[in-house]
Amino acid sequence: MRTTPDKQSVFSHVFSGLEDKKGMSDEPGKGSSDNVQVAVRCRPLSSGEKEAGHSVVVSVDVEQGEVVLTPPTSAGSHRRGEQARTFVFDSVFGPESQQLDIYNETARPIVDSVLEGYNGTIFAYGQTGTGKTFTMQGEKEPPEKRGIIPNSFAHIFGHIASCQGETQFLVRVSYLELYNEEVSDLLSKAVRKRLEVHVRPDVGVTVRDLSCFVVKNADEMEKLMTIGDRNRHFAVTDMNEHSSRSHVVFSVTVERSDVGPDGEPHVRMGKLNLVDLAGSERQSKTGAEGERLKESMKINLSLMMLGNVISQLVDGKSKHIPYRNSKLTLLLQDSLGGNSKTVMIANIGPASYNWDETLNTLRYANRAKNIQNKARINEDPKEAMLREFQKEIEELKRQLEEGSGGEEGEGEEGQRGKRKKRRREDNAGISPRSAAKVRVQLERERAELLKKTGLAEGERDSTRRELERKEEELAKAQEQHAEMERKLKDLSSKVIVGGVNLLEKAETQQRLLEQSARELEKRKKKEAKLTRKLQRKEAERVDMEEKYATLQDEAAAKKTRLKEVWREVQRTREELSNQRADFEQERQAMEETVRELSREVRLHQLVIDAYVPDQYQQLIHSHSTWNDDTGEWHLVGPFINVIITHYDIISVAWHTLETMSRDLSHHLMITRNQNGTPEWHTSPTTLGRSEFTLCLRGHSSADVSCIVT
Ligand SMILES: Nc1ncnc2c1ncn2[C@@H]1O[C@H](COP(=O)(O)OP(=O)(O)OP(=O)(O)O)[C@@H](O)[C@H]1O
């Protein structure tokens, strides 16, 4: 199931394809501008919030797509008496909303586009504990409680199963985690290995060495998701018993091959990125300390960078969008302002004590509405695997046919026949039928050999050896044949065609999804009918009004209109002043983060100054280079980097000119001299030419010295 893990691309740029089953898109490669779609989901009050007596400050108008945030009434709240805030979004969902409705309204159109060959991203954003993971993953049972990710599996394989004709599909998945600004592979055995993110002009953002798995049905996908989830970083915080401490991206790549009007197969490739972000949080509310605090700061910082990117994209003034300021924005580069159809689901809580955070999330989401993406259907992308698989299958079939196709030619002793047989033995092995014939022939030759009495001993031996050699060759050829058949079966099973059940256990899910999609369709039709009726009534009313209007009426109407305009001006003024106040608050929050960060930087500097002598700090400075691709500092050598994490613990890395890093800690020995001072030594045998001595003298860390010899 696993494919070559190297150079797997995440959020790849080159996506192309066709619009309908038969033909290619009229203008391959051309995209249309689409705004990022934004949905808001408000979860119900939790039992803890009810017990604590928190009031509800969020109301949702599904028809109008409106969310209203009313200021808290509790005496202690610093926001008491403020203006209510109203926001309008593409869709909004209240506390009673169902997982299936969320899927059908927000995710279904994106997944449909991915099946046509577009990139799609669905990401959940919001304060910690507001239901991002619930929305993206949901609960395992009952099926109605499943989230967007498992529903998309049922949708994808339900669609493939319903496809008729010659369309072939290849589906593969990968699952990555971004924890403390480091990317790792949740499906790898070396799950904590740090991976590098690169931006390649031809392919877009790629994660080197990220493994990907070809899947044949919805259940295999689900198993992989469960494996990855087990490796994810979670923790208990005051705000959430099962809080995600990392951002994760589950990617599904769907490649499809259709025969175009030119009679040739064409491949389209769509990639679906399902992103569950870690929640923004306040230290005072989550009770974070130590490691949790560090995680929390990294989470907040990356989300702040994401907000910054969103603002700059919307602002449109700056040509340079600071994607490289964090790994999160780098990974989301194509999804925000790039080649992708994107939906953002902003999760909020309804309780009064979260007023500030909820307002922040709504403001964030409101800004994101204006991001313009340029998704395109590309055709025949370079990194498609389906065509490679198809070619390999064809080649294997051809070779196997050659291996068994020469039966009529058996017995022909001409040179051509011999060449063909040799090639068959070399490449394709031999089919069981041909092998049986050859075996009969060999048996016959053996019997004849036994019958011959007048042969010299030497001649008999050489004939016997020849027979044995032929038998060995036959066995080898049969083995090759069986191996090729196995390979062919394996490859063919990975390339999926429609018309078969690919859902197994996910069948109920697919049924529920379809049923809910039908209900949604019915609801929409009913709504459209009502809207038309309302419009007719409104037109009738306007007609009547026009008929009976007098000058006096006109004057009254104008007066009313004037009043309305005046009210509008007042409202806008208030909104402007609210926005200024909000902006000020946001600026203060940013300043606080900057202060926290500078405190951390100072602490690091203190540790460095205390433990790393000046000459080594200068050495590090002079050997450090900034890599624009990875957004990181790299050390170039040869050079020994000494990091002291504890008085008695030293780790040493040797950096060669190629920036390869080797941890040398295990080559170090500690001894104490006659004064009792600890000294570190390296083992000369293991270090060879790059031998060096490292000493730690006295208790003062400033005495650490490191000499390369
Ligand atoms: N719409 C909802 N209906 C019912 N329960 C919900 C809903 N949304 C969230 N919950 C519950 O709220 C709790 C917190 O949800 P969840 O873990 O999904 O939050 P989160 O935003 O992912 O938090 P974090 O950022 O800390 O990971 C869970 O117990 C979840 O079951």
Automatic annotation (TrEMBL):
GO CC annotation: microtubule
Binding site for ATP: 126-133
Keyword vocabulary terms for this entry: ATP-binding, Coiled coil, Cytoplasm, Cytoskeleton, Microtubule, Motor protein, Nucleotide-binding
Coiled coil (residue ranges): none
Nucleotide-binding keyword on record: yes
SUPFAM superfamilies found in the cross-reference section: P-loop containing nucleoside triphosphate hydrolases
Protein name: Kinesin-like protein
